[in-house]
Amino acid sequence: MKRLEGKVALVTGAGSGIGRAVALRLAQEGARVFCVDLQAEPLEQTCESVLSSGGIALARRCDVSNEAEVRASVAAAAAAWGRLDHLSNMAGILRFDHFHEIALEDFRRVIEVNVYGTFLFCREAIPHLLKVGGNIVNTASTSSHAGLPWGGVYSSSKGAVLAMTRTIAVEYGRLGLRANSVSPGDIATPMSKGVKMPEGVDFSWMDRCKALAGPRPPEVVAGVVAMLASDDAAHINGEDIRIDGGTLS
Ligand SMILES: NC(=O)c1ccc[n+]([C@@H]2O[C@H](COP(=O)([O-])OP(=O)(O)OC[C@H]3O[C@@H](n4cnc5c(N)ncnc54)[C@H](O)[C@@H]3O)[C@@H](O)[C@H]2O)c1
What we know:
Elements: E1 8-12, H1 17-28, E2 32-37, H2 40-52, E3 56-61, H3 67-80, E4 86-89, H4 104-132, E5 135-139, H5 152-172, E6 178-184, H6 190-194, H7 205-208, H8 219-229, E7 240-243
Parallel strand pairs: 1-2, 1-4, 2-3, 4-5, 5-6, 6-7
Nicotinamide-adenine-dinucleotide binds next to helix 1 and helix 6.
């Protein structure tokens, strides 16, 4: 079923992991996808995958924390096919630290990418989305709902994304714009595989908290994002959907 036929979607973080899976899934559902990421080469690979599976995509390199680049990217996306129906904010960075050792510079960079990036894309996209009754899906995290040891910087940023999304939802809902978020947990992507843990930390307890066994590829998030982007979610606004297999805690 193609639920996004005729729609135009902008996906950030489309060069890897969840963002790439979202771009591919939205294209499979019929959307033309405008893909952005900091890394030009992986981004091109995403677009090639969309094109080779019969979809339509454009790529643009953009640092989501750079106001001028975000403004230009949203304008280019809206101009490309004359409309913008959906924004998926998937770009993000993760780091783990002992809280008492967090450097201000590290805190600042995570906030710049995860919070400013989400804010800037939402701010620039909203006027376009309002014209067509469009919608936004932001990426929060399970760490925005419960404490995540060593995740002080990251969970602070994702808590802000959750609150920002709910605010947009109630501020613009009556004008026809929906905003929701997803909260993935431990999805198998370069981010979760490559993260460096601080000295002396054993993170294996996290696996023991999982209620569902089995693989958790980025596609499990992409399917939920596609649903939220579609009219199947016409009455879902200000909601956050945890995609973490449930926990035993
Ligand atoms: N993987 C998980 O378990 C998990 C859990 C919770 C939340 N998330 C969130 O899901 C989103 C996607 O994460 P992922 O696991 O696919 O990670 P990933 O590292 O595979 O992909 C993140 C993408 O964001 C891009 N990016 C980073 N900084 C950027 C910047 N300044 N400007 C533009 N692009 C930038 C990267 O180049 C990369 O392509 C993130 O927001 C992440 O915080 C992931």
